[in-house]
Amino acid sequence: MNKLFFNQSLTGLTAFAVALLGSSSPVVSAAIPVGGGSSMMLVGGGDLDKTAPSNFGQSQKIAQIGQRGELYILGPGDRVQVDIFNVPEYSGGNGQHRVLADGTLNLPLLPGPIFVQGLTLQQAARQISEQYRPFLTNPIVTLSLLEPRPINIAVAGEVNRPGSYSLTPVGLGNTGGGGAIQVPTLTRALQAAGGVTQSADIRNVQIRSATGAGGSFDLSRLSQQAALGEDIPVRDGDSIFVPPLTSLTPQQASQLAITSFSGDQTRPVNITVVGEVNRPGPYIVTRVDQTGGVLTVSRAIQTAGGLTGAADVQNVKVQRLTQTGIAQTINLNLLGLVRGTDLSQDVVLAPGDTIVVPTVARLDLDQAAEIANTSLAGDPTRPLNIAITGEVNRPGSYTVQRIDDKGGQLGLITVTRALQTAGGITQSADIRRIQVRRPTRQNTEQVINVDLWQLLQAGDLKQDIILGQNDTIVVPTSTNVNTAELAQLAVTSFAGDSTRPLNIAITGEVNRPGSYTMQRLDDEGGQLGVVTVTRALQTAGGITQTADIRRIQVRRPTREGTEQIIDVNLWQLLQAGDLNQDVILDQNDTIVVPTAEIVDLTETAQIGAANFSPAIIRVNVVGEVTKPGVVEVPPNTSLNQALLAAGGLNQLRAKTQEVELIRLNPNGTISRRTLELDFSQELNENNNPSLRPNDVIVVGRSRIAALSDTLSTVFSPVTNILGVFRVLQLFGF
Hints:
single chain, Outer membrane lipoprotein wza fold like, disordered N terminus
């Protein structure tokens, strides 16, 4: 791009040297004081313009915008210094004049005013010299600008306050012409108009003079490369137009915001934040915070309460309307900002910007965890409103606090922490298919699948996702029960209160069927451990001898209103030590112990020794035994063993061939069996069966004992009378 340089300078001595060389034309010079205290001299006269050295810097830009190298066009209000060589009465203090409202100068000796409006200093100096020729010999005129008049310009396009402005040069020259005057430049004109907007195309700022000549200038070179040649002086009547960018990158937006001509950094900004933020809406935000930071996208998101868990941080948009009505969109990837790899994504905002945070189509759990631990995630102390349904002990809605009573932060709310708040999962929970349902700002629902089994087995922490405001956790019911997994679930941190009493029911072949409240703490507060099937059977008095321990069932109600059935094989526990069969029970479980269709007597001893069998059973042995009465024996004790426990048969009176077994059945009926007695027999159901609690063994009398008892009963009165006679005989009657 062409450059305009205003480095043309020539001292007054140069003009004198020209005169001494015998130039036939009048010599004139023009000087304007500029910043730094030096005068900018423009010399004219004769053919000097044609022979001027190249450092006068006439460039293509000058050709486009007019002879801007001459720097200044005179007009009403300018104060100038006229010096005529060797004519002191018309020079110095006597040579200071102001251009009148009609654009003329009234100079001594001349018959009338000289019209200088619209002329450059050089042109005006030449005209003054020509006017003095009739009165002076070869007049050498120097014209200097002492005090420029305010210049009127117009600024339009991408500036904060477009319109017309009057700019006054900074600093005033002295009577000697050496004072520093800073002529308004392009950037000063933009600052007067409130600075450029964030939509400005500063690479193509256009200036058009009052004569119609124009040019374009690249102020990005000024801000990035210190190319001062782009910041040209402006003239009276100039029109400046700042076009909008057709496309805007985050880098361009950030660079533009920190330039000196970008506007007032302290002015409050109206912005709008919509989409996946906690408090969407319009905001008035100061452009500079207390630490001196400018208003960026991240600060705006924080002002709006932070991002929700459904935010798509990789596709955030800043929508901007230019002063000319053109819509611009800046696409941002805030993930680069979060990771610290691309800070340019944190774009500086402009008045009227709208930040749009879209809803993510598919949540990346790793990214969600990254965002949740940043300042973009919102207030970490704000309570979280969530709902938990399905297989948890206390489903419902919860307000989860994120600070404790002393103001300390409790950390982020994750799925597992929320499950703990709801009393933990039930044993019917399918932790592989948990769902987090998240409402979006688009009135849709985002579903996030969570596999907590992966968390337990592989330590995959991303499965324990961080929750957002108004999330709902759904814990489904497991369709297939794996007893091995149930044992692991029961000891997890989200399995519920391990001290809470358990209400269960036990039916079938147990000695005391019914409902039970199983305590999980002892009297001193110590934990008793989890409640398993075997512990529950012990509480119910143990199994009976007819229990089928291979087909025990645990029936578990679910939150769906259905019943989950878990098959338990305690024989597998006894034989192979399969602890998975000793299922950990849950609230409101029912244990059903069925009756064995066939009792395998070879297994009775092993079953009777198990801890879920009763330690002793009580049977009654009556009749002709040594110690009749209640006998306490181990479970599955045989009939022969019970007789021996009662002291054995009374050999003088007992019927040794057979005994009678009376049994109260679970259905309320009574059965009576006569069994052949053979102490050499092993356990068998025919004549040496295993006994059950409350069985009654009746040992009858032998025939001789029965006859003796009958005779004794018949002759008992006679025996009594004879006894009376013997007593009377003793007293002498």
